[in-house]
Design brief:
With 285 residues, this protein is mainly alpha-helical. The protein is 82% helix and 0% strand.
């Protein structure tokens, strides 16, 4: 009995020592991380021509000037109407890119899902293709395409489509790999072809999640299309770049208001649709 009690006491002492060491190592790691972070920050700040702390004191000066210019502008509401076509162009860019990218993503997803009976050597090829499309940021690819094709919305749409195909393809393939295999087994037992198994056994299970992810990606692509406008891809981003270059505060606030309202409205609508789709209801509530 005493030996057992001694053993329990030794174990408690051992665990206490291990816990003490763990806390010590954690504290040392956090301390070293803070030293590296603040040391690097001050070195970078010394090398900077301006200075972080001096600029921080003036952080709100520029937004304040924009607000003042917007209030004093005679036709601020008219600017919303003037820039509305540029907003529609950005939304169209995002919509086309999402639609084409989602279709390509479906093809890649079906080719990269091992549980769907696809030709085995095709699986790693499709997965590497999705890795490649996700590896290139939209901005870098758009700059390359603008150099080749010229400044227009087409390079931006190709870049966003390319990235969307990889990102959605990865999500779609994960949805495919989590389906119920019993409908597929039943269809295969009746002699159904591969396409018939996909049509009647897989698509009814995955389409709600496919639509949900595609709508979420549409929101992301609107913001990406607006950013790509800064590099000459057209749309509201290009108007932003021009307004900022000229220091037109009223124009900047009007463009920001349009973009903000659009993102909020699309976010609310797509969130409602996504909830209905995942819940199995295809009607707008």
């Amino acid at each position: 009995m005493s030996d057992q009690a001694l053993s329990i006491g030794e174990l408690q002492t051992h665990f206490s020592e291990m816990e003490h060491k763990r806390r010590l190592y954690t504290a040392l790691f956090l301390g070293a991380s803070l030293v590296v972070f603040f040391g690097g920050f001050y070195i970078a700040d010394d090398l900077n021509s301006g200075g972080f702390w001096q600029g921080l004191a003036k952080f709100f000066d520029y937004p304040f000037e924009i607000v003042v210019e917007s209030i004093e502008a005679d036709r601020w509401a008219g600017l919303l109407v003037d820039y509305f076509p540029a907003l529609i162009e950005t939304v169209n860019m995002a919509g086309v890119s999402t639609l084409v990218g989602a279709l390509l993503a479906m093809i890649l997803a079906f080719c990269s899902s091992r549980n769907l009976g696809i030709f085995a050597p095709l699986v790693p090829i499709a997965r590497r293709a999705m890795d490649i499309t996700r590896a290139f940021p939209e901005l870098i690819l758009a700059l390359f395409l603008i150099f080749l094709l010229g400044a227009s919305p087409i390079p931006a749409m190709i870049a966003v489509t390319f990235h969307t195909a990889g990102a959605l393809g990865k999500l779609f393939s994960e949805v495919n790999e989590n389906i119920d295999s019993k409908p597929l087994e039943g269809l295969q037992a009746t002699g159904a072809t591969w396409l018939q198994r996909m049509r009647f056994g897989v698509l009814p299970q995955v389409l709600p999640n496919y639509c949900s992810y595609a709508l979420l990606r549409f929101e992301i692509n609107i913001r990406a299309s607006a950013i790509l406008g800064f590099v000459g891809a057209g749309g509201i981003g290009q108007e932003f770049k021009t307004a900022i270059s000229w220091g037109a505060g009223a124009d900047i606030s009007a463009l920001f208001t349009l973009l903000f309202i659009t993102i909020v409205v699309i976010d609310q609508i797509s969130s409602r649709i996504r909830r209905n789709l995942v819940g199995g209801t295809f009607q707008m509530a």
